[in-house]
Amino acid sequence: MSSRPGRGHPRPGGGGTCARGQPWPLSRCLRGVIEAIFSAIGVAVWVEDEEDLHSVTATSGSKLRDGAPSLDPAQVDDVIMGDANGAASASQDAQRRFPTATPVLLAALEYGWLWTDAAGRLEQVDSLLKGSDLASPRERARALRVRAGLLRGAGRAPEAQVAEAQAREGDPNGPDSLYEAAALSLVGGDTLSAEKAFAHCLSRVSAEARCQRGQVQAQLELDRVNEARSAVDAWKADGLDVAVLDGWVTLMQGDPAAGRALVAPALADDARGEPGRVLPGLAWYIRGMALGEEGGSVEEADVALGRAMRRLAASSDPLLQALGGRSEAARIRYGAAALAKERLGKLDGRDADPVVQLLIAGHFEQQGDTEAARLRLDRAAELGRESALAHYARGLFYYNPSTQSAALEAWRRYLDLGPSGPRAERVRQRINRL
């Protein structure tokens, strides 16, 4: 088979095609594609937009079937996106790893591999939950979590909470449950508890990639960059591919150029339609933020953050969805100034995230509107009581003779969260001088 499918793919059972936009039941089409991949590796995976071919990437090391091999979507990447020249060995490997197509189907629905329409993906998950294809409690719980993520992304939080509770009840001790609990704590602003929960997840499943990513994100939001650096270096020493996490930590340590360089291979893989070890949206996010921090090309930063936003929005993972919202705000901060007002009006409630508020504050400060910047920084600190970055930025804003008391209050709250690294050291020095 070619490395990219044509307009349609034969439907299992004979007759018809599963072309994009055709009325066949999509779950049957999807299963047909997966079966074809198993028999002849080398078919690229597409989304509804023909011009937006995504690499098949993900960050989960959880076992999706009791007693089955670990179905890490990073391994799915290697198999599904394998070179056609290695079709025979890759096909055998796929058959060994994936006794049924259902886990791959769930991963495709979770990460938006085949299409980006969230409503269509939700319909497919509901169809799976009503059918008999989910062979174990853990598999059913995974489907419920995918459903919850899609509902939450659609603004249907009460329904999402019901699905999450059902998933926890069905598989309370699985890595999915551990990750979900930690991720929801982090999104909810309970950053200290989230960091502990991610550490607990990793104590149970040391190579669980989502919990590695979550732990790094929690540590960076607490500005514990030294701890994040130690964790990433330890994973690298164990031979794990954590280049994108390495780039993220490097960016937050104040070296955006080096951070960009570390994520460049993942972006090259994405451009070629090859597999990466994490969702490419995170790598694009890091590149866009790095370009913005460097003061580089506005156009390049805008493009990178736009790609990040689209890819991250396709995920049902709450942490990746949050980064998607930050990508939107970062386009206001670092992107085309002429579009900032229009984009600001389209944040659709994402401004409940303190980091989004920080990015918008940076935009207003850059435009010389210090009062609007102040209001946003105060709001960020109010929303993010455990956001070290919010308290640090607010203290920096108030660091002048007429508002010293506000700076001290902000920085004391910052230091109470246990930050490490160069920003924490600068704050301690400045407090001593006040």
Structure description:
It is a single chain. The chain has 4 domains: 1-170, no CATH class; 173-240; 242-352, no CATH class; 355-434, Serine Threonine Protein Phosphatase 5, Tetratricopeptide repeat. 65% of the residues lie in helices and 0% in strands. It has 22 helices and no strands. It has helices at 26-39, 73-80, 87-97, 102-111, 118-130, 137-153, 157-170, 175-187, 191-204, 209-221, 225-237, 243-252, 256-271, 280-294, 298-313, 318-334, 340-344, 354-366, 370-383, 388-397, 404-416, 422-433. The model is unreliable at 1-100 (pLDDT under 50).
Estimate the global geometry from the Cα principal axes: globular
Low-confidence segments, given as residue ranges, are 1-100
The number of strands is 0
- Helix percent reads 55-70%
Largest sheet: none
Distance between the termini: 69 Å
